[in-house]
């Protein structure tokens, strides 16, 4: 399907997520390294991956393109735009503050699972508005009841 789309000049818009903090909008793309805090964000996600694994997280490789090498799939999942935006929001807000993220595409299954676990581990409410609905994550559950 991707080859067909490419051959016919059809492009899927790049996924991005944005979060507003202190009156400023921060935009993240998949694997984004343009943000001034990208090194801290990546380090935070790397550290937090241990807590996620302890909580039972297993990466959902179905959320990664099929034309990506197996070795790269885990890394690609870690740097989805919504994960970068959520990590940035957590790092730069007061504990207990609700994190609000807007995503231009639908949230993938792996990010959905990850953000549910983050909400449980940190006791934070996280709201992600994707292209179809609002996902209100709280205490390890989502308002969509895992149907989206």
UniProtKB/TrEMBL annotation:
<feature type="domain" description="DYW">
    <location>
        <begin position="56"/>
        <end position="148"/>
    </location>
</feature>
<protein>
    <submittedName>
        <fullName>Pentatricopeptide repeat-containing protein</fullName>
    </submittedName>
</protein>
<dbReference type="Pfam" id="PF14432">
    <property type="entry name" value="DYW_deaminase"/>
</dbReference>
<dbReference type="InterPro" id="IPR032867">
    <property type="entry name" value="DYW_dom"/>
</dbReference>
<comment type="similarity">
    <text>Belongs to the PPR family. PCMP-H subfamily.</text>
</comment>
């Amino acid at each position: 399907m991707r080859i067909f789309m490419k051959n016919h000049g059809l492009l899927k818009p790049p996924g991005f997520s944005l979060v507003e903090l202190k009156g400023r909008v921060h935009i993240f793309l998949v694997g984004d390294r343009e943000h001034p805090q990208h090194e801290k964000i990546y380090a935070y996600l790397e550290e937090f991956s241990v807590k996620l694994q302890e909580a039972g997280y297993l990466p959902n490789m179905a959320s990664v393109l099929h034309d990506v090498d197996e070795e790269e799939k885990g890394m690609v999942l870690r740097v989805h735009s919504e994960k970068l935006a959520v990590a940035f929001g957590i790092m730069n807000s007061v504990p207990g503050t609700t994190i609000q993220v807007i995503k231009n595409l639908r949230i993938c299954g792996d990010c959905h699972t990850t953000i549910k676990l983050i909400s449980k581990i940190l006791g934070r409410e996280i709201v992600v508005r994707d292209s179809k609905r609002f996902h209100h994550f709280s205490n390890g559950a989502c308002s969509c009841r895992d149907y989206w």
